[in-house]
Amino acid sequence: MTKLRWGGATDVGLVRRNNQDQFLTTEALFAVADGMGGHAAGEVASGVAIAALQEAFEHDDHHTPDGLIAAMRHANATVFERSMNSSELRGMGTTLTAAALVDAGGEERIAIANVGDSRTYVFAHNELTQLTENHSIPEELVRLGELDPTEVDTHPQRHILTRAVGMQPEIEVDMWEVLPMVGDRIVLCSDGLVREVSDDQIASVLRRLKEPTEAAQELVARARSGGGSDNITVVIVDVVDDDGLAAKASAEVSPTADSHPPPETEIEPEPAPATFPQKPPASPKRRRFTLRVALFVVLFLGVLAGAAGAIVYFARGTYFVIYGPAGTADPSPFATSASRPILIYQGRPGGLLWFDPTLAERTTHISDEVCPIHTDELAHGHIVSSRSAGEKFVANLVAEAQQTCATKP
Ligand code: MN
């Protein structure tokens, strides 16, 4: 049985008035959530998400990777429902990153799930690696090759998330599985840590402080002394016993075991930086890092494909109804020089990334046939799920105007 030891710390920071971050540490499930929304809504979002995640994950005694994904989706649906049922909470959302000890087909794994820009790192062999991707606009642009990585920290939209828990009825969850190897540390944190403390500084604290609670508290303290511009939350989970998995993995990939040549020998580990204790090239530890890198790469590629699909879907999967420019309405008995045609576009108003909306249909109706109360919305675009939903929406607007507000004769 894999044995874990863990610790967590959170702090409001020096600038914010309340702490909208929350964290969870249980025997098998660990999570960090960074809530957003006006007044108390951010705290509600992160609290509801964490509670729903735990409830769903623990509902089934048999903890599995799929169970973690289902629990993330349950957390999303629960926050979304709460926000829909209260005008004060409408629009609230939260990041959610979670790590869980699971049974993947009879083998123990640590499953890691993420939505938003909180992070999960793996600290192994003195090296800190960010496992999760941040779902923010500039980081999506970097992944698409549209923005230089050095420009992320100053990008005007760096705090705008492209994915968050509770904003939509359904959510796509990024997932990874890592082998629990003795000595490895999993670090979950909100962006309040990484705004103030560099990855190198985080790694140096992790090398120095072995006790997880102490290390988490030290990292929070560093973020405070670095400026504390946001709420700060850190959870550290250490693998203290892996039931001989690390030793077994090393033996399996040992180059001397010539009866079973390792399939992953083609992926060589990066040369160790000079500051690390140098190990002989066939060192068991270096070899098992190779295995893990191969596993990351496979899972990572799957996630990238999913993310690209989600962006295309988000950019092109919707339609919107909008007024065209004045004076471009087709000749009609009602038209004046101020009349605007009612158009249906595929895409998002204003476009998203490089996806510009395209005209799907020029309806036979014009702005004069719609109650003035809708002018503002239709000037900016009303989003609908399909072209036929757009047609229905326009028909309803015209029908409404004929019954309840005066239109031109
Ligand atoms: Mn934050």
Please give a quick description of this structure:
By secondary structure, the chain is α+β, with helices and mostly antiparallel strands. The chain has helices spanning 41-59, 65-84, 137-143, 191-194, 199-208, 212-225, 245-252, 284-316, 375-380, 387-404, and strands at residues 3-11, 21-25, 29-36, 93-94, 96-104, 107-115, 119-124, 127-130, 174-178, 185-189, 232-241, 319-323, 341-346, 358-366, 382-384. It binds manganese (II) ion.
Explain what the structure shows.
The protein has 409 residues and is an alpha+beta fold. It is 34% helix and 23% strand. It has helices at residues 41-59, 65-84, 137-143, 191-194, 199-208, 212-225, 245-252, 284-316, 375-380, 387-404, and strands at residues 3-11, 21-25, 29-36, 93-94, 96-104, 107-115, 119-124, 127-130, 174-178, 185-189, 232-241, 319-323, 341-346, 358-366, 382-384. The strands form 3 sheets. Strands 2, 3, 4, 5, 6 and 9 form a 6-stranded antiparallel β-sheet that branches. It is elongated and about 85 Å long. Manganese (II) ion binds at residues 34, 190-192, 230-231.
